[in-house]
Amino acid sequence: MDELMTASKDPVPGMRRASVSLLHTFCQETRVDYSQFIPALFRGIINLMNDSDELVVEMSWNALNAVTKRLDASEQLQYISHLRQAVKYVSDDVRDGDLPGFCLPKKGIAPILPIFREGILNGTPELKEQAAKGLGEVINLTSAAALRPFVVNITGPLIRILGDRFTWNVKVAVLQTLGLLLGKVGAMLKPFLPQLQTTFIKALNDPNREVRMCAAKALQKLIKLHSRVDPLFTELHNGVKNTEDNTIRETLLQALRGVIAGAGQKMGDPIRKNLTSTLLDLLGHADDNIRVAAGGCIGSLAIIAPDTELDSIINDHLIVNDPTVDWTVRHGHAIALSAVLHDAVERMVSQGLYEVVTNAAVAHATTDRIPICSSGVRSLGLFSLTQ
Questions:
Q1: Whole-prediction pTM
Q2: CA 1 – CA 301 distance, rounded (Å)
């Protein structure tokens, strides 16, 4: 075994082909227990999947398949960490983002998917986390076309795990992997859209902030698959209005900002107007984090709001500088104005709002309240970038 592994690194392609061919035959046919070599085999064979020689790549896939097919369920769990290390080892050398051996037509990740799937479904919480992270790393190295045959086998177990009671780190690993899959295969996940939406919305209400933020990021990718977005916007809007937990409300607002940026142009007029009204009210919220998150949503709305609505948001709310109004309201307006300039400064200029917005930013920057002043300075900095 050591001789074959050494020969697989030979600079001569013919030597590498011969060694990996012998490895394949040995691993497939032998009755000898070679379990002690499996970690080294994973590392060596998966590294060969990045070989410059196409025959070596194909032969290495066959060898890996021979190794993994001999593993029963308990052995699959035993080697998850070794498999993950092998994938991470080769990822540093992969060119153009895809590992050739994972992208072979009609073959792809078939040899290793059952191992990660077993870990996700039947492993300990620690193994579930490792398996989900490892699967995410594999997705990163695999083309969308090569992932297509495996979408159902990947997505189903991940959704199932999020429906159970597991620790936050398991949920984070699973949500991150689902997010990677959404980013890679997109429309291929349309059959899972209702389940994924329900799963992500539920995770947005999780006690752990990292779980909530991962769900918000995944939802931003998911909404791009929607043809009818109003029900999702309505659900998030109702959550923002009705929750009594400000930490949950803040994350729901973060999610709203993402989905507005991702598909706000598909929103119907009634829901957009209702949402705008709620967000403007929240700019005066007692909690700093809520004001900041609501201001960010206004920034995203500025990209897609009709001209008349944007003009009203700016002139009737964000540039109003009444010193008799509570400072938290003025702070919220300053935050939102800064967010609008960050996301849609060209619209401010094209709609002839340059002067009034500049005057408002100067007023914010020269106030005696440091939070308002900071937002005003940021607004002026953003405006200066357009000059």
A1: 0.91
A2: 62
Q: Which two three-digit tokens encode residue 16?
A: 């590498």
Distant-in-sequence, close-in-space partners of 344: CB < 8 Å, separation ≥ 6: 299, 302, 303, 310
Give tens-digit pLDDT for 225-248.
Answer: 988 999 999 999 999 999 999 999
338-370 confidence digits (pLDDT tens): 999 999 998 888 888 889 999 999 999 999 899
Q: What is the mean pLDDT of residues 263-290?
A: 96
Output the CA–CA distances (angstroms, integers) from residue 133 to 89, 144, 302, 373, in the order listed: 15, 18, 36, 43
Q: What is the mean pLDDT of the chain?
A: 94
Query: Which residues, 6 or more positions from 14, have their beta carbon under 8 angstroms from its beta carbon?
Result: none
Q: What are phi and psi of 205, to 5 degrees?
A: -105, 15
CA dist., res. 359 & res. 354, Å (int): 9
pLDDT tens digit sequence for 313-338: 999 999 987 888 899 999 999 999 99
- Checking if the pLDDT of 201 tops 70, the result is yes
| Four-residue CA torsion sign, 255, 258, 262, 265 | positive
